[in-house]
Write a structure and sequence with these properties.
The protein is an alpha/beta fold. It has helices spanning 10-13, 21-31, 46-59, 77-85, 93-105, 153-164, 186-192, 225-243, 255-266, 280-286, 304-309, 315-321, 326-340, 387-409, and strands spanning 3-8, 36-42, 62-66, 89-91, 119-121, 125-127, 136-141, 144-149, 173-182, 204-210, 213-222, 247-250, 270-274, 295-300, 344-350, 365-372, 375-382. The mean pLDDT is 94. It folds into three domains: 3-167, Molybdenum Cofactor Biosythetic Enzyme, Chain A; 173-250, Alpha-Beta Plaits (2-Layer Sandwich); 255-409, Maf protein. Helix 3 crosses helix 4 and helix 9 packs parallel to helix 14 (387-409). Strands 2-1-3-8-7-6 form a six-stranded mixed β-sheet, with helices on both faces.
């Protein structure tokens, strides 16, 4: 069994909202052993919806559709499905009564437009919506099973989990794993794993860059979940062996959670001094629950006066080398370590742009200092991209330098 996922809505095509239903459904189908062959986005046009549903039904045994089941004139998914089935819309009396009851129980006025949600293609089965008024639908288009769900994510998720997922049974178990790396480009990772990424191999292995990281995705298929899980784990270990220190985590772990685990295990603490990242490192660290056990605090020392007065960076150092320099980054980290009394500290200063650069100090230049119990080291980077990309990469790189420094200190 393969599936096609269709998301419907003019607002999706215009980029006004982000489609979160399709990624969610794809992940869940994978867990159920149903691979997805295509994702499609189409606007609120009944003719185009019918065409897309028809093409998807000719391609896959399962079609999942979200969106366009509301009460307004631009909600035409039900009309599109009726056209794809070659039937007319009819009123589902039970759904009409359920919708009327929904409004009555909340003391709200029922308008004629609300009852359009009870119109379904003849022969289609309705699926109750426990979170809203728009019912879902199950229908056959050719040899394909088509399920329609409302667009609001909470409604789509509940309907899929409670009403649709129990009906699905994949032909094989799929297990997906991720290995997160930092410090090398996607092409370098690809070369190291080239033989594992050959088309047709099981498990499949692919790479994807994400905010400075490169994620290695492994998907194993087998008749039983245990076999697929074992095959995926074997590849995870092989990727770790080949990439060594570039690997910082697997699956749902992040750099911040890995650093948190290392600090907690060692019984040590961290402080940060941030200039160009403006508190982003502290935000990433405190996103992990229980951060107060190891994170003592930070200083967003954006102005030179804050570097001098709060962190104790010598004015002469800033005048001689500039705020964006190796000596100032080191002094910031040492100042934070001293100020908070921490075992470790990070100091970050750089030029995120778009202004403030020179020939000697271009946009993207960032110095990252790691003040360790035994000394301080500084790393120079020139990150590509726009301002927010540079800031995000600098914060991520700082956590990675801390991770590696803690490993070396063991």
């Amino acid at each position: 069994m393969e599936a096609v996922i269709i998301a419907i809505g003019d607002e999706l095509l215009a980029g006004l909202i982000v489609d979160t239903n399709s990624p969610y459904l794809a992940r869940r189908l994978g867990e159920l052993g149903v691979p997805v062959s295509r994702h499609v986005t189409v606007g609120d046009d009944a003719g185009r919806i019918a065409s897309v549903i028809g093409a998807a039904a000719a391609e896959a045994a399962l079609v999942l559709v979200t969106g366009g089941l509301g009460p307004t004139l631009d909600d035409v998914t039900r009309q599109g499905l009726a056209r794809a089935m070659g039937v007319e819309l009819v009123e589902d009396t039970r759904q009409a009564e359920r919708i009327a009851g929904f409004f009555a129980s909340r003391g709200r006025e029922l308008k004629p437009s609300n009852l359009t949600q009870a119109q379904v293609p003849a022969g289609a089965e309705t699926i109750d919506n426990e979170c809203g008024t728009a019912p879902g639908m199950a229908a056959r288009v050719g040899d394909s099973q088509v399920f329609m769900m409302p667009g609001p994510p909470a409604e789509a998720t509940e309907m899929f989990e409670e009403r649709i997922a129990p009906r699905l049974a994949g032909e094989a178990a799929l297990v997906r794993r991720e290995v997160h790396t930092f410090g090398a480009g996607e092409s370098d990772i690809g070369e190291a794993l080239a033989d594992m990424m050959v088309r047709g191999r099981n498990p499949t292995v692919g790479t994807a860059p994400m905010a400075g990281e490169v994620v290695v995705r492994i998907t194993a298929s087998a008749p039983e979940r245990r076999q697929a899980s074992d095959a995926a784990e074997k590849d995870v270990q092989e990727v770790r062996r080949r990439l060594g220190e570039l690997v910082f985590a697997a699956d749902d772990d992040t750099l911040a959670s890995v650093v948190a685990a290392a600090l907690t295990s060692a019984g040590q603490t961290l402080a940060v001094a941030e200039s160009c990242t403006g508190g982003m490192i502290g935000q990433m660290i405190t996103a992990t629950p229980g951060a107060s056990q190891y994170f003592l605090g930070g200083v967003a020392s954006y102005a030179d006066s804050a570097k001098r007065d709060v962190l104790g960076v010598a004015a002469e150092l800033i005048e001689q080398h500039g705020a964006v320099s190796e000596p100032v980054a080191a002094a910031m980290a040492q100042g934070a370590k001293r100020r908070f009394g921490s075992h470790w500290a990070l100091g970050v200063t750089g030029i995120a742009g778009p202004t403030g650069a020179s020939a000697e100090k271009p946009v993207g230049l960032v110095y990252i200092a790691v003040a360790a119990p035994a000394g301080t080291e500084v790393h120079r980077h020139v990150f590509p991209g726009r301002r927010e990309v540079i800031r995000r990469r600098a914060a991520t790189a700082a956590l990675n330098h801390l991770r590696l420094a803690m490993r070396s200190a063991k």
